[in-house]
Amino acid sequence: MTKKNFEGADQESLDLLKKMEERGIESSYDRYDAQQPQCGYGKIGLCCRHCQMGPCNVDPFGRGPKRGVCGADANTIAARHFVRYVAAGTAAHSDHGRSVAELLIATARGEAKGYRITDVNKLHEVAKVFDVSTEGRKTNEIAEEVGEMALAEFGKAYGTQKFANKAPEARIKLWEKLNITPRAIDREVTESMHRTGMGTDQDYKNLIMQACRTSMADGWGGAMIATELQDILFGTPKPTRGTANLNVIKEDEVNILVHGHEPQMSEMVAVAASDPELIKEAEAVGAKGISIAGICCTANEMLLRHGIPLAGHMKMQEMAIATGAVEVIAVDIQCVMQGDEEVARAFHTKLITTSPKAKIDGTEHIEINDENAYEKGKEVVRIAIQNFPKRDKTKVFIPKGKKSDVVVGFTHETIKYMLGGKFRASYRPLNDNIMNGRIRGVVGVVGCTSSILWPDQLPYMELVNDLIANDILVVQTGCAAAECAREGMMVPEHMEVAGPGLREVCEAVGMPPVLHAGSCVDNSRILIACSEMVKEGGLGNDISELPVAGVCLDWMHEKALAIGQYFVTSGVYTLFGTKSMVAGAPDVDKFLSEGLEELVGGKWSFTPDLKEMGTLIKDHIEKKRDALGINEKKERKLYDMEDRRALAVD
Ligand code: SF4
Ligand code: MSK
C-alpha cells in the first residue's frame, strides 16, 4: 500500500498530492491502493486470457492446476505473456514512427502547413540508409522518397529493416545466423499476436526468440524511424538550457500543458503560442503571456529541441493539473491517464484530446492532423486564452520548491561533436577515456515512472548518483530522464558528485555527467551510439563486448519491455527494477537471465533492490573491461597536451 507521508523528497509533488487529498480529488495513488491486493498470478506471468476457455491460472507452488484448460504449461503461458507485452510496446513506438513518416511525406509535398524540413544533413544521412539518391535533387524530393521508404518498412513483403544495417558487422551476422533480423514491422507484431494465441507456439524458447525479433522491429525499426525522421522535421537536438519541475507553471500567464509522445501536435501549439496576435489576446484577458510546459515524453521532445520547460514525468500529470493554474492540457497518444479528466473537472482546466487514435470519454476532441495542425494549434491556444478568466484564484496552488536548471540535448551526434570537436567529430575520445579508465563504462538509465512508488522514492536519482560516483557515464531518456532533470542532476555542476575520472572528462568538455538524450523512441539513439563506439575501435567487435548496460527502474508500460528486449537482443545487459514478470515460470526466467546471453550476448536481470542492482551493473562493467584487456594496471599518466587536445571542445 502507498505510504501517505507528505514530507520528503520531491516535496512539490507531495504538496500537490496533499492538496488533492484535502479537496477530495482522487489520484493514481488512491486508485493503486484501491486495486490491492492485485492478482498474484498476473504479477508473475501465470494468468492466461487468450481464449474463452479461460482465464486460466497455473499454481506456482504445485498445489493447484499445473496447466490451463488447453494444456498450456507455466512456461508457455509466461512466455506468451512476455511476447505480447513486447509486441504491444513495439506497436506503440512504431505507430508513432509511422505518423512521423506520413508527416514527412505531407511536408515534402507542401501539404502540411507550418511544418518544414529543418535538418537537411540528417535527411541526407537517412537517405543513405534507404538508398535514396541525393545527387542534384531538391530537398523536398529527397524527403518525399525517404518518407515513402520509411513507410515501406512497416509492410514490405520481403527483406529486413534497413536501419538494422547500422549495427556493427558482427551483430548483423549474429542476427542473421539466429534468423532474428527484423522483417516488416507490422509483420513482426502480427506474427507475435498469432503465435501467442491459443494453440500455436508452445515452446517458450521459440516464443522468446520471436520477442527478440519483434523488439528489434521497434528499436532498429519503428522507434528509430520516429527519432530520425523527427530530427529531419524538427531538428536534431543540440545542447540546450531549460528548466524543470511543477513550478514552471506560471501564476500570471495562460498555461498550456502538452502531454503525450508525438511532437507533431506540441510543436504547432508551441508555434501558435508565440503568435503576436494570440499573445495580445492573452494580454487582453489579463494574462502576462502564454506559457507552454510539457509532461512525459512530449516534455522531453520540447525541452530538447526548444528549451520549453518540463513540468513533470508520467506520474506527475494529475498533480500538474491540480495546480489549478492550467487552462488547457492538450494530449495526443500514450501514457495519458484517463484520471486526468476527473482532475481537470475539479478545476476550470480543459482536457483536449487531439489524436483520432486516442479519445477520452467526456473530453473535448480537436482533431489535429498533418494538414490542419497549425490552424488547430491556434484553436487550442485560443481556447486556453478564453479559459483564463475562468481560473479560480482561490484554488491555485503552485508549489514554491525548487525549479531545476538543466542542460539537455545529448544525442549520439552531440556526444560525438562535444568529445571530438566540430571538425573531427568522433567517438575516439570517449573510447580512449573508457580504455584508460577515466570512464569505466556507460549506462543508459531510461524508461518510466509509475504510481507504484510514492513520490519521495527517487530510485533513478539514487542509482544514477551511485553510477556517476563510480566514474560511469549515464545517458538518459524518457521519464527516468525527467526525474533526474527535476532533481537538478543535468547541469555541468553536478560533476561534483562524479568520481575523479568522469569529473575530469566533464570538466574538460563542460558537460554534465548525466546526459539527456530524449524521449522513449530516442532509445534508438543509444543503439546507434553503441554501434559507433564499436566501429570506432578499441572496445571489441560487437555491442556485447562494450562495458555498457541498460536500466529501467520504475517501469510500467509495455513500451519499456520492448525497449529492454531490444537492448538485450542488441547485446546489452539490461536490468529492470521490479521482480521478474515471468517469475512464475522459472525456466523462462532462467532463459531470459542466462540462456539468452549465450545466444545474443545480452541478458536480463530483474531486481527491486537498488544496491544489488548497482553492484550487478558495476560488476558487469568490470567483467567486460577485463575481457577487453583494458583493466590491466597502467601507470596513471598525467594529462599531456595530446590528451587535452582530444578532449577539447571547439
Ligand atoms: Fe486457458 Fe489455454 Fe485458453 Fe489460455 S489459451 S485461456 S491457457 S485454455
Ligand atoms: S512517457 S512509456 S512513462 S518513459 Fe515515454 Fe514515460 Fe514510460 Fe510513458
UniProtKB/TrEMBL annotation:
<feature type="binding site">
    <location>
        <position position="47"/>
    </location>
    <ligand>
        <name>[4Fe-4S] cluster 1</name>
    </ligand>
</feature>
<dbReference type="GO" id="GO:0016151">
    <property type="term" value="F:nickel cation binding"/>
</dbReference>
<keyword id="KW-0479">Metal-binding</keyword>
<feature type="binding site">
    <location>
        <position position="48"/>
    </location>
    <ligand>
        <name>[4Fe-4S] cluster 2</name>
    </ligand>
</feature>
<dbReference type="InterPro" id="IPR010047">
    <property type="entry name" value="CODH"/>
</dbReference>
<keyword id="KW-0408">Iron</keyword>
<dbReference type="GO" id="GO:0006091">
    <property type="term" value="P:generation of precursor metabolites and energy"/>
</dbReference>
<feature type="binding site">
    <location>
        <position position="335"/>
    </location>
    <ligand>
        <name>[Ni-4Fe-4S] cluster</name>
    </ligand>
</feature>
<keyword id="KW-0004">4Fe-4S</keyword>
<feature type="binding site">
    <location>
        <position position="448"/>
    </location>
    <ligand>
        <name>[Ni-4Fe-4S] cluster</name>
    </ligand>
</feature>
<dbReference type="InterPro" id="IPR011254">
    <property type="entry name" value="Prismane-like_sf"/>
</dbReference>
<dbReference type="Pfam" id="PF03063">
    <property type="entry name" value="Prismane"/>
</dbReference>
<feature type="binding site">
    <location>
        <position position="479"/>
    </location>
    <ligand>
        <name>[Ni-4Fe-4S] cluster</name>
    </ligand>
</feature>
<feature type="binding site">
    <location>
        <position position="297"/>
    </location>
    <ligand>
        <name>[Ni-4Fe-4S] cluster</name>
    </ligand>
</feature>
<feature type="binding site">
    <location>
        <position position="520"/>
    </location>
    <ligand>
        <name>[Ni-4Fe-4S] cluster</name>
    </ligand>
</feature>
<feature type="binding site">
    <location>
        <position position="51"/>
    </location>
    <ligand>
        <name>[4Fe-4S] cluster 2</name>
    </ligand>
</feature>
<feature type="binding site">
    <location>
        <position position="56"/>
    </location>
    <ligand>
        <name>[4Fe-4S] cluster 2</name>
    </ligand>
</feature>
<dbReference type="GO" id="GO:0050418">
    <property type="term" value="F:hydroxylamine reductase activity"/>
</dbReference>
<dbReference type="GO" id="GO:0051539">
    <property type="term" value="F:4 iron, 4 sulfur cluster binding"/>
</dbReference>
<dbReference type="GO" id="GO:0042542">
    <property type="term" value="P:response to hydrogen peroxide"/>
</dbReference>
<dbReference type="GO" id="GO:0043885">
    <property type="term" value="F:anaerobic carbon-monoxide dehydrogenase activity"/>
</dbReference>
<dbReference type="InterPro" id="IPR016099">
    <property type="entry name" value="Prismane-like_a/b-sand"/>
</dbReference>
<dbReference type="InterPro" id="IPR016101">
    <property type="entry name" value="CO_DH_a-bundle"/>
</dbReference>
<protein>
    <recommendedName>
        <fullName>Carbon monoxide dehydrogenase</fullName>
        <ecNumber>1.2.7.4</ecNumber>
    </recommendedName>
</protein>
<dbReference type="GO" id="GO:0004601">
    <property type="term" value="F:peroxidase activity"/>
</dbReference>
<keyword id="KW-0411">Iron-sulfur</keyword>
<feature type="binding site">
    <location>
        <position position="261"/>
    </location>
    <ligand>
        <name>[Ni-4Fe-4S] cluster</name>
    </ligand>
</feature>
<feature type="binding site">
    <location>
        <position position="70"/>
    </location>
    <ligand>
        <name>[4Fe-4S] cluster 2</name>
    </ligand>
</feature>
<keyword id="KW-0533">Nickel</keyword>
<keyword id="KW-0560">Oxidoreductase</keyword>
<dbReference type="InterPro" id="IPR004137">
    <property type="entry name" value="HCP/CODH"/>
</dbReference>
<feature type="binding site">
    <location>
        <position position="39"/>
    </location>
    <ligand>
        <name>[4Fe-4S] cluster 1</name>
    </ligand>
</feature>
